[in-house]
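Thread: NAD kinase, structure

OP (GT): Posting the sequence first so everyone is looking at the same thing. Length is 298 residues per the record. Can we get the structure tokens written out before standup tomorrow? I want them in the notebook alongside the other entries.
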Amino acid sequence: MTLAPSCVLVERPTDYADVLARHGTRDQARFFLAQRDIDLADVEERHLRYQETRTRVLGAIPSEWRIATLARADLDRFLFAEDDIIVVLGQDGLVANVAKYLDGQPVIGLNPDPDRNPGVLVTQSPDAIGDLCADVFAGRASVQQRTMAAATLDDGQQVLALNEIFLGHRTHQSARYTLSINGQREHQSSSGLIAATGTGATGWAQSINHGRRGPIDLPGPVAPQLAWFVREAWDGPHTGTRLTAGLVDAGAALTVTCELGEDGVVFGDGIEADRLRLDWGQRVTIAVADRHLQLVGE
């Protein structure tokens, strides 16, 4: 017997659900927010609008399909199937959160609040979900393959990211390491470095690039390149500032050898809780990932 198509709805708690979980009751939540000049009614109204949108989305997915709902906090414990269709309902960052756990599954990003969410990755209207599911299942959906970044440790551990990889000290203090790229090598002391994809080029990387005397051309979302930047490099007796920015093409790599005795970390997309620890002498290779985010509707 052929199984029905499978759809996984990924979401995160609303602000109202978060504050209610922390304070226990609606009255306590209202009191807490009132001390900060925030009206609970506004927060609750956004929550109710989201719930209405969520109900419409679930109702528009074909009734014969298998449907699972997944909270962001449970992403690292969920086993995605090869034939899953992923529906992300929420902010752009939620797409980045789920991307690292996928391997070729199509992702439909739905924007439940266009007035508050830019819609860079959640590009679709929730009202279009029925047609989008049908198009994906029939193989006629437009899909954009967005480049991802990978940081691979010399012991085989790996971090994937849709936006950017960060490498440095756990608390963003000065980090010492040796950076190697394109046959060039330099000892450095800095507040860490990032390597961003074209998707991430609209965020942290763009901010760093704008502050440079000589900004570089950042890659586009599907370009097989990463842009890398060293943050606040210090020119000292044993450290230099010659290699502070550039591009990593597909097939090339940026290599970093850690010179921190402790608290060296590497993580992706700002998720510090999902970091890998770096020991002194450990080598990290940062490159374009073999995987791509398959974003529907671009």
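GT: Both are above now. Quick notes for whoever picks this up: The helical segments are 15-23, 26-34, 40-60, 92-99, 129-138, 204-210. The first strand starts at residue 6 and ends at 11.
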